[in-house]
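Pair request: fold both.
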Amino acid sequence: MTSPKSKYIKISSPAPHVLLLELNRQPVNAFSTEFWKEYGYTFDALSKHPDDIRAVVLSSALPKVFTAGIDFQGLMKLGSGDAMDPARRAFLIRDDVLDIQHAVAAPERCPIPIIAAVHGIVIGLGMDIISACDVRYAASDAKFSIKALDMGLAADAGTLAYLLKITGNHSLAHELAYTARTFSSDEAEKLGLVSRVVQGGRDAVVAAALQLAKDIASKSPVAVTGTKRLLLHARDHSVAENLQYTATWNSVALQATDLQQSVKAGMAKSKEPLKFLSLRPKL
């Protein structure tokens, strides 16, 4: 399987139809402008990649840190300026913030399920990044913080937009957002931010996430992609609107050969793994 080229992200394929993306900017995966642009581009490229990629694990190549967040030098530049008046400077700053938001949201735009496997430090932009992923696993050594508040700013790259939609403990979510305090992987699970805490560090959580990715990759890509789109639509729309959308989506998906294969295998009680066509078969 070929992979998109990347400077700060190690990309490998440890299993059929599965990619492992590892953040890799020494020493702490601080996101410079070049880094977050590359991050967004990488996920957008996966959306139309010619290879049959069906699940992606996002982690860090660094043994003790997922990411320390935004690069401080880049952060200071957003609020700086010369004699430009505040209104015009605000337009430029807003464009920069929107660009960062667009990059961070790339995993959500990607039709492939994205599993974040985090360990060590997960602060600031790290919270924004994992909030836009589909599934979040945490190593027991992970430490989280919505750090922007301590920098004199409300988090603006995704955390606050996602937090109450992806977690179930709203009181705790508000507490963590208002205090920027560090919280553990166990508290992240209590919040509902992560679905599983894996005992150990980087290697343990990546192994668990890859096992999940392999399971997802064994399913019909038509069904998995449809499920991701319908879940995202349901999050932001009413039940009635989502049912209408689902009916339209599945009017096409029901015609896929995947359904016939799955039904026949189920009726025959076959235990053999099914082999599904790529979503983008080569002509």
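--- second member of the pair ---
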Amino acid sequence: MNNFYSNMMKKSLKERFLLVIGVLFFIIYLTMGLAILFWQKLPLPLSQGYRTTLGIAIIVYAFLRFIRFFQKS
């Protein structure tokens, strides 16, 4: 934990800001995918199969972005 804190403090303000934005967008995409999957009164006229496919695709995209973001850093 102490190593994580010291590495975080070595980053510039811009790098820390981009880290926060990256994590924020991961949470947004993950929430959007879960909402499409589980929100029954979703205002999108999609059948259950399309909703499941779209929700899973958005969740996979969120994880791929998250992994790519930390590999690049």
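Observation on the second member. The helical segments are 2-10, 13-38, 48-72.
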